Amino acid sequence: MEDEYTRERALEMLGVTGGALEELYRHADVVRKNHMGDDVYIRGIIEFSNICVNDCLYCGIRASNRKVGRYVMSPDEILAIAGTMGRFRQTTVVLQSGETPGMADEKLGVLIRRIKEATGLAVTVSVGNRPLETYRYWRECGMDRYLLRFETSDAALFARLHPGSSLDDRLRCLEHLRSLGVQTGSGFMIGLPGETVGVLADNILLCRRLDLDMIGIGPFIPHPDTPLCGTKNAYHNDPDMFFRALATLRIFNPDAHIPATTAFDAVFPGEGRNLALKRGANVFMPNITPVRYKKEYFLYPGKPSVDEEPEECTTAAIVRIESLGRRVGRGPGHSFKKREQPGQK
Ligand code: SAM
Prior knowledge:
This protein has a single domain, classed as Aldolase class I (TIM Barrel, Alpha-Beta Barrel), CATH 3.20.20. The protein has 13 helices and nine strands. It has helices spanning 7-13, 18-36, 75-85, 105-119, 132-141, 155-161, 167-179, 197-210, 240-252, 262-267, 272-278, 291-294, 310-323; strands at residues 39-49, 92-97, 122-126, 145-147, 183-190, 214-219, 259-260, 283-284, 327-328. The radius of gyration is 19 Å and the shape is globular.
């Protein structure tokens, strides 16, 4: 019944406090359990390059930030990490980087192929807006999934934050990915400067409308070396809003994979991602980038476990999941959506 999923209902959920807030969290947890079960999928993320041609106003690795020491990991280094993941009960590798359109597309395709052949892991890519042909090439190389947040559903705010790019461009990329049968993930930041609760509700509704396989959301955190350094998160006086948003997102998107994202731990050190898992999330993405690179993939302050090497991060993830009475997911952890996935490997 589509009229359960109205803007009014989302706004109502985003406004609850006290006992009603606890009830919202319980409801989200029940929806998660009924639709996704108790398994928590671990998807290790390798931040393989911080080189970026874009100048997104919020992002620490934006092109204009001269304080960043730029790096690209070699394919062999990435492959070596991917080769250890199975031992740590990870079935998906997420390859994420800044954006260098056209410069390393073929290299990435070859890497995807090598990872698939050597490990059989599911491969998720997250490297931004690209032409349909590039997505098709990576798909042919074996790419299973793609993560590309729309960041905000407010087109004017999107344009202000992303010089030279539009919300329409981003949504077109998501459409292209879907048309290729790639499992498609998107999402948004919560509390960008200028965001209203109405926009937040629209973000959640847009996720539903896009019928996403995966949805990643997390608080916006101002970075000192970006143009948004002097700003505050729109909900800095009401951090419960981050979890209201997550719980509402789960209720509106019962069968999407929703990760407990790192930014929750940056705002609520040591417990943010645990709380997220109890309030709607069912995926955990430990950062398995080697420490020497991780320090330079500094998107926002307070990013957790920057001093921990890949194995420590994954072991800690397993401990967290089991301490919550949940199980580590087995199998590839593909989309739960019942749709044709053309060419699924
Ligand atoms: N370049 C690719 C892209 O934009 O999809 C992948 C890397 S990008 C750095 C990954 C995500 O980091 C973005 O989608 C954005 O939501 C998040 N991010 C960047 N800066 C942030 C900040 N200051 N606070 C919270 N999240 C941030």
